[in-house]
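In these records, each integer encodes one residue's backbone shape. Here is one protein:

___
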Amino acid sequence: MSIREELEKREHEILAPWASFSDTSRGRARAEAQCDIRPVYQRDRDRILHTKSFRRLKGKTQVFLTPDGDHYRERMTHTLEVSQNARTIAKALRLNEDLVEAIALGHDLGHTPFGHAGERALDRVCPEGFAHNEQSLRIVDELERNGKGLNLTAEVRDGIVNHQTRCMPFTLEGQVVRLSDKIAYIHHDMDDAIRAGILRDEDVPDEVASVIGRTLGERLDCLVHDIISTSKGRPVVEMSPRVAQAMQKMRSFMYENLYTNQVVKSEEARAEALVEALYKYYRERPDLLPAYLLKKEEEGASRDRIVCDFISAMTDRFAISTYQELFIPKTWTIV
């Protein structure tokens, strides 16, 4: 018996009956030989972790565009916090921790430079529209490995594309990540807002604070514990109605006082204009795109889609430097 088979057997001894078991996965789009050491979800986790797309997350905005400080979150730290929250919940509920981690690490790979500002800009200018969760799936399916994709399992792919509030993954592990994503950004965006002097813990409405806590630590502890206590021993992943309602009110408070705050959003119009300008430039000059994207067009992808692929992959820094190179006049001297 291989190490992988031993680990698969152990899953059946430890995990809840409604967990996702590695040896009963719905499989991959392209059949491939099994690893002798790692079960399929652990293998998917490793594939995502080693991608260029994952490494680029460290250079992409979470909420604060180009903040003056070293401790504000970006997409990488957000992703790691989602993963940590999700693994804590999954372990307590006896769900598949490898599957949860793979989904969490891959869920935001498709985010644009400048966060949701960049996403709005691409969605506005691209006739086919743009959504980061769909782009995350496109990255792992078709773009990574120079256009070959990662050939991930159906369960990981489903969790990645369905991590947003309006969606619902078919695995409980995917549902853990979906909730953990919300918990993570409510926690760390509030922390960053406090760091920036925009909000204080005392600003949280009493009807919210009295239910889920008056400090950052209390709120995170409450939300995680509530999911575990409400879902333990049941084939569901959910919050109690009282805490779920309080979390929704907390999200509304954040949207009203942080995500639409003029101080925070002061540079977003410029960021959107930059992304739109880059899109239009490369839309008219496809020969400047990487060869693997041009091949995607030959295989049937639209010009608009491959330009979105290129622009959305940029980090904030690379997008700014590319814009400067293309559109900002340079000084010159006569030799």
User: Anything to note?
Assistant: DSSP finds 16 helices and no strands in the chain. The mean pLDDT is 95.
